[in-house]
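worker-3 :: picked Two-component system response regulator YcbB
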Amino acid sequence: MGLTFCIVDDDPATRAMLENIIQESRLGEVTGTARGGEEGARIIMETRPDVVLIDWLMPDQDGLETIVQLKRQGFNGKYVMISQIENQEMVGEAYQSGIEFFIRKPINRIEVESVLSRVSEHSEIRQYLNELKSSLSKLDTLNLLSADRQATASVKPRSVSEVVRPIYMNLGIVGEAGCNDITAIMELLLENGQSGPFPPLKQLYEGVAAGYKSTPREIDKEAKAIEQRIRRTVTTALTHLASIGLTDYGNPKFEHYAPLYFDFEDIRAKMKEIDEERDDGKSKVSIKKFLQVLYLEALDQMQSA
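worker-3 :: tokens ->
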């Protein structure tokens, strides 16, 4: 089932063109259109679309004001800004308000299809992650070091390494110490046929640590070291992507990996931190989300190989 869209733009020709592109490209269904921010906010709250395509400059209420209003009213859909504006400061302000992509005027069919396809792709991955958490049956036991599981494993560690290395390169973390730990976690999950709710991080750290150490005390100490190495590595990936986004919002790596591996609020906060040339050392990252997404990407690539 495709996404639902609401189009808010004071130009009727733009509204009609966007609606036609969405319908003809089978990207989803347009559930509402509006010619201004106030009318748009009302329709959006009534129809609750997945994605809002909204013009920046409108006579009654501009797009940013409308987005702020919708967020205050509890609407959590995705936003795509339509604009002729090229000023980087203003574009940065728009991203910080919560939009995920830009469509530039005059409207170009190829650009619209490309942007909305990426929005759809990200939405599908988020939905899959939610389903992974809520609907899969519970694991009876996750014995990460089971000799029986290793004997029947269909994935070779080297193959896992080959799959994740290009992703590490795009995330700017090749050579980081935590990559070895992350790869080890991916190998364990894939070898053990992960089929239930994603395991607790502590269990994963201890599973990897048990491959290096033998006594409970040593395993516990190594697990804590693994956690720190992975956290530093994931934070490095966040910083790398935020740096790309700060200079080029349209960079394909930024557009694909930033919203996929990180919460966009965290990306925006890091971009602001870099722009202001400060480092408070408190970058927020979700390691669990990072590992979940990497696992799904690795699993998909290995199954399609």
